[in-house]
Amino acid sequence: MNGPSVLYCAPGSGLGHLNRALAVCLELQALGVSVRIVTNSPFAAGLAPLARCPITRIPADRWPSGVREFAAAVRPEVMVCDTFPRGMRGEWSQGLPAPAVYIARRLNPEATARFLGEPGWQAGIIQVVVAEELTEEHEAALVASQVPLVRLPGRIRLRPGLLPTTIPPELDGLLGSGRCCLVVHGGPVEELTQLAGLARDHGQPVAITPWDVALEGVRCFEYYPAGNLMARAAHVVTGAGYNAMADMMFSRDRHTALAFPRRFDDQAGRLAEWKPASQDGTREAALAIASTLRR
Q1: Does an H or E element contain 127, and which?
Q2: Of 17, 183, 221, 229, which has the highest C-beta tally within 10 A?
Q3: Which fold has domain 169-272?
Q4: What is the pLDDT of residues 226-271, one digit of tens each?
């Protein structure tokens, strides 16, 4: 197996970690860095033909041991640990197989205590990329670790148009009407329904979701990446997850976000402490990772 310079570990059963991994890895490729993504997301197969970089899926029930075996086989020069410095399920609790860059996204206090509360959690981590405003507890843990920090000027996002997926004609027509309120959500159908209710206050609701659902009065489409569509909508309604907020960071006047409870993510805190950004931070994240490689 040909080893990449960078192995990006993107654990998570949804699309969020994988979307962020793809954004960073495409920027790394533009810098001439060989990359590979490993994930347990069921969306990996659908994204693989679009990705332009290798994506390997390890099923969730085999993830902890499977990702360790995979990393040992590909022998990357540097790993990227997205959100969880020792892995989502403790897969790196016995040590990292390569020097690692930790991408720090906002965690709630309970998750911060779980993933950064153990002494020595930073062993093997050579750099932290701070991808957004963090809680006080999270920030304090990073400072105490004495690992070098790189603070991004904005959030990581998959730049619109980078993956120029064909827009279905019906969806294209709705976006061109000037009345479309786009609802973008990959979470539970109950949350999608709640967001669609908010969207009716802003225009004709049109949902972008990976689920095969029927909502009364709402046209639903499966389309990726949703960031390609957002600039064309009269308004956009989303949850307050990292990627949705990053996609709309330059268009807050056209964006309504609703914070949902999550086991690890602090959506309410992200929404409450949101600050505008003058640029996105994707390239700076890739440059920070690339700077750790031997040249």
Answers
A1: strand 125-130
A2: 183
A3: Rossmann fold (3.40.50)
A4: 999 999 999 999 999 999 999 999 999 999 999 999 999 999 999 9
